Write the structure tokens for this entry.
Amino acid sequence: MHKKTIGLIFLLTCLFFSFPVAYGKNNSNIKLTDEEKNWIQNNPTIRVANELDWPPFDFNETGTPKGLGIDYIKLLAKKTGVEIEFVYGYAWADLIELFKQRKIDVMPVFYKNKEREKFTLYTEPYYKGKLGIFTNTDNENKDINLANMRVGMEKGHGSIPIVKKMFPGISIIEIEYKMDLVRKLATNQLDAIIGNPFVFYFHAKENQINNIRLSEYIKMNNKEQSDTSLHIGIRDDWPVFYGILKKAMANVSANEMGGIEKKWTNVTIANQVNWALIFQISTIIILIVFFLLWHNRRLKATVEAKTQELKRLNEELEYKVEERTEKLTELNVKLSKSIEELNTLRGIIPICASCKKIRDDSGYWNQIEAYISKHSMAEFSHSICPDCVKKLYPELVDENDDF
């Protein structure tokens, strides 16, 4: 196959597999100071908190940390060259306590509030948060009055002060685990729950709960949204590492972050068709199909031309072979005839001792000159030898003649 053809197929294949964009490749070009390099050399491994049940942002499955925040901190670690040791198996409140005691170095998914700022260095948010109010579909006709409802939120959640400020008089029931919040709402043990919609939808889908719904989003100003967005929290005695992480975050490309978000936040109430992606993939497939059809047609024409050329050459070869065969046959006939002629006068020839006639194969006696003329290319001219002259014509011979 032609090199240009191979190149075009390779290009189309790359386009086809470019949806969605992968984020695992490290194109880091972080410039670290000598102090930062020495710090990493002295602290090659950092302890990172891993929550048990906050999918799709931070959770654990059979001992494996997963989620949007986990993938993000892994990407940053790769860019900075540090290793990660995940700390898991604790409730959220216990993880915060371990972080305060500096037994955990980094909180990868952390809300920002004044209480935590006392012991935390916060990065800028890498994912903007949302708060939603969920209710049971059995009570969909009831008015949402949070002041008179049993409202559940995760224990120690950073958005609790914001919710209390927005809804004066609200009584919040703090529950340890998010899955318990979803279950209690589904069984009418709670009238409403507040938190990130992605988290609650994920738990409901995983546990086949279909009687809860997002009633409304809580409107927040820029500061409030910033406080409910995802930050990375670093222990406050690690300002050098804080600076390193800021450089790594600035080095994260839009494609890298977009790949992480698409992987974990594509959770909706109903399965929606991504028509844009389908159109892109379909276009690539159609282009590939048209290219293959065009290439096959071109290849077929080339094969037909080559076939005709081979047929013509074969006919020429057959003609030359036939011509050579005829010449060889003719030469063979001549050769056979020559051999026959050469063999004719060989062997024992019966000849008369007196008259010198020769007997042929039919038993007839022939004059010797007739026999030789018949069986060879020789011709005869007649003369007389001296002895015969003396014998036949003695009167003509002088005794002094010397023949």
Remarks:
- The CA atoms of residues 318 and 324 lie 10 Å apart.
- The chain has three domains: 16-126+230-272, 132-222, 358-396.
- Residues 17-27, 267-273 have pLDDT under 50 and may be disordered.
- Residues 358-396 form one domain.
